[in-house]
Amino acid sequence: MARVAFREADVNLMARMMRAEAEGEGKQGMLYVGNVIVNRDVADCADFRELRSIRDVIFQVQGGNYSFEAVQKGNVFYQRAREAEKKLARKNLQGWRQHPAKYALWYFNPYAPCPPTWYDQPFTGQFKQHCFYEPQAGTCDSVYMG
Question: Is the pTM of this model over 0.85?
Answer without folding.
Answer: yes
